[in-house]
Amino acid sequence: MEFSRIIDQLITQAGDPAKASARDLTALPALHGADPTVLYEGRASSLADQMEADARHTAGVGPDGQPLTSAVLDAAHLVRGYRVVVGIVDPDDDATGRVTAWFPLWRPHPRLRHQTGREPPFPIAAAPDEGHVKATTVTHDQNGANELFVHQAFFGWHGWSLAAPPPGRTIGADNQPQVPHQPVSDAFPLDTTRPTAGTLPALRYGRTYRLRARLVDLAGNSPSPQAPAVEGAATNPITYARWEPVPPPRSYRSGPFWTESPNPGW
Length: 266
Prior knowledge:
Strands 2, 3, 6, 13 and 14 form a five-stranded antiparallel β-sheet that branches. Strands 5-4-12 form a three-stranded antiparallel β-sheet, with no helix packed on it. The mean pLDDT is about 75. With about 270 residues, the protein is an alpha+beta fold. The longest helix has 17 residues, at about 45-60. It has a domain at about 30-60 and about 70-110 and about 130-165 and about 200-240. The chain contains two helices and 14 strands, in the order αβαβββββββββββββ.
């Protein structure tokens, strides 16, 4: 259908340029590629084992169902979540995957705004901090309250901060551009404004990246973004490339078109 439309446009332009439609530049195909995403293989079974162990700790029994004098906990029970950083691989050292610098994806602007809606917001000076992705996040269906669903996608990066919204306007309910305003709770009227300047790398085709996550304990503590990475704690080098098909070549008229009328006897 697209090829037929282009041919009709060329024929009309050659016969009567005044009736020819404006030149239609073929755009790139629809986006099919996905942004870099880290998957947790076996996350559902791991979460089920953890929930079962927590239920035994609450009941005060061991795996065999016998009462325990004291609960046995390990370091996994102190994990609150993970803080994600992304590193750009040195283009001259792709063989080893050496990262020149790590950039945090959960670091919002150190200034917060106190916003209640009843008075103008005012900034609050705060020390630099980072957000985190939850260690366990589940959803459930309204029709099956006893069924929990967990996604294997641990976190992804789309070229922007994971803790602050991107700049610019969005389309509102009235189909008009507007500056987005995130709802702020009256119980906790704090609003982050934007990411810290200079802490976000650019996500570009052809570049190679590595992702890693740092553990966050129950008190919100974790190693710094520039802390030395433990061997095996980062992903393998990932080259960000396009998965979309190559657009078809354009057809140009190199000479006049010849048409024949059908034979009335056919």
